[in-house]
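Forum: Protein Structure Q&A
Topic: Joint prediction for protein chains with partners

I've read a bunch of threads here and the consensus seems to be that you should model interacting components together rather than docking separate models afterwards. I'd like to see that in practice. Below is the full input, 762 residues plus whatever partners are listed. Could one of the regulars post the assembled result?
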Amino acid sequence: MGLFGKLLSKIKGTAHASAADWDELEVALLEADLGAKLSSRIVEAARSAKAENAESAIVAALHGALSKKSREIARALTGPTVILIVGVNGTGKTTSAAKMAAALAREDSQVLLAAADTFRAAAVDQLQTWGERLEIDVIHGAANADPASVAFDATQQAVARNVDYLVIDTAGRLHNKNDLMAELGKVRRVVEKIAPVKEVLLVIDATTGQNGLMQAKIFAESVDVTGLILTKIDGSARGGIALAIEESLDIPIKFLGTGESAKDFAPFDPEIYIQGLL
Amino acid sequence: MFDSLTSKLGGVLGSLRSRGKISKADVESALVEIHEALLEADVALPVVTEFIEIVRGRSVDALATVQSGSNQAQAIFEIINAALTEILGGNARRVRFAKQPPTIIMLAGLQGAGKTTLAGKLAKYFADQGNTPILVASDLQRPNAVTQLQVVGEGVGVPVFAPQPGNGVGDAVKVAKEGVAFAKAKLHNIVIVDTAGRLGVDATLMNEAIAIRDAINPTEILFVVDAMIGQDAVRTAQAFLDGVGFDGVVLTKMDGDARGGAALSISHMTQRPIMFTSTGEKITDFDIFYPERMASRILGMGDVATLAEQAKKAFDPESSAKLESKFASGEDFTLEDFLEQLQAMSKMGSMSKMLSMLPGAGAMKKQIENFDEGEITRTQAIVQSMTPTERRDPKILNGSRRIRIANGAGRTVKEVNSLVERFTQAQKMMRQMRNGGTPQGLPPSMAGMGAGMGTGMPRPGAKVIQKKKSKSGNPAKRAQEESS
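Posted by a regular:
Agreed with the consensus. Here's the joint model:
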């Protein structure tokens, strides 16, 4: 991290940073996938402030980009809280679903997992392996079953067993495939016949570029996304695209996936994130 | 893929074309717009800068030598086309085969890039060319990656060497080594080794990949990367290049709407060719990468070469020849032939994918995306609900037959009527063609299925047109032919 460190130390004590310094900052922001719009807005904010106030101006601009919505998991008043995990292929939905369930189980909640990714080869097995490791039951259907039917069965089970949370893993789908997005809408509608879906979490890979905005926009249109899980943040990528999504669509990042084990999952803390960027 | 880049570049070139004479200032303002378009498309900054420099230098030279406005615009268009092709890797290289079989292909990449799915597609591709590939399951990290590879292998009918259950158990290096030995013993000529996904910065996993590489000495290491990757593409690619190293790149999820900047950056920054692209969830959604074709697609000129190749693959030469000779002998094109063509077309892949390869497809993007793929299936269902006699002679289709067909196909009589109507027109057109006329319309199987599909498609009987006119011995038929 440390996007701004270099510039901040450079302008410390001087009256103004040079144009080249500002360009350098903008390049650094672009390279962190913040996108052209957000990058130039932050640079402008810092530039218009006095040198000694540059840091606080940047912090304020970053705060301004972040969503004001709650980053907590919304709870159902009665019955199980249903959490739907969605996203494009290969972002880490199955792993995130398992980690999410593990995090909830650590808080002494009763959790059930549903393997509604009936498309990808062995995705159900993958979630079941996680379930065995974590000692959490996984509801699944036959191979290539209708994902909505698996989700429905799982919701019925969740109500019958009176669990606190049901985490539903879905198949990865590219957001420009209308039929697959419609299928996801159906999963949601079918579940809601039994219990309200309190959270729809979109899993975004931290290495994603500006395409992430389109992903979030279209998923939000189809299934009303309530939050983001930013995964693979342990790599070299800074996940600036998530900030761009917060800014333009007002969808809060709720969790970070930081590694391969069940513990590598944490609630998103905007203060720590901003400090990390500085 | 590349849609927004295509439309932006199209706009820039369009405004250049509309000028009488192009000045240096015009070129500069065009370059500013291109710069912005490339950045928005996630192209890495250094690549953008270099691209702009190349185009600027050559355009200024061209302006000095070419005088009139429209020729100048064309010259700049060609400069951009050439520069794009260069950035995309110039002349592509195909997979090298080992002098001593087996050829060993190792896959490496980030988690979730699509390595395991790609392993299956690659295996199918090689098997279709008459090779005897085997898949080796060396991803022992991700839960059930081994099972996934087994399912994928079973799907494409390629054996999978998987002695270890995975899920964190077993030695990936040992599996890879034994897999290669097994392939040698069983005379498989290609070994595809699937490895665990790893982050560029994860030293432990990178060392495992290096250990696998050193143990099996692969003929090719392919770096598998998600086309939706952002500015991190270059860092990640560099980390893999410095770590395990790679000889070629495979881009996956090319069917998304990513702007394709990674495609434009990685090959250029690492000086490694892009060899394949993965374009969908079906096992056959897999293409060889051609830089010049991709450049032409980005500039909105379509990719007719790929379309023609796919057509050639899908249309079985035997049935084409049969149709041709039937056609030459003066027999009518029947619904049976029509059905055969429809089936061949559905083998070519999704209709929207084919349509998007046509020149100018960018302008009808929305229609293409929402093309109803079910149309072909429904048409097939209607034809298949007819008796063989009806297929050969649709004239006998009276009202009650049509009702029966509609019920059989689960469609309405109106749809049956419109199919018969369209078919009759197509048949008429075929007769015209046979008589050496130039039909103003579409090839028969395309009738009523969207405009402009004729380009690049093989037309059964196309040769006949030049060869001869009809020689029907039947006077009635002869008269009909001559009148039409």
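Chain A touches chain B at residues 27, 30-33, 36, 88-92, 119-123, 125-126, 128-130, 174-178, 205-212, 214-215, 232, 234-238, 240-241, 260 (CB under 8 Å).
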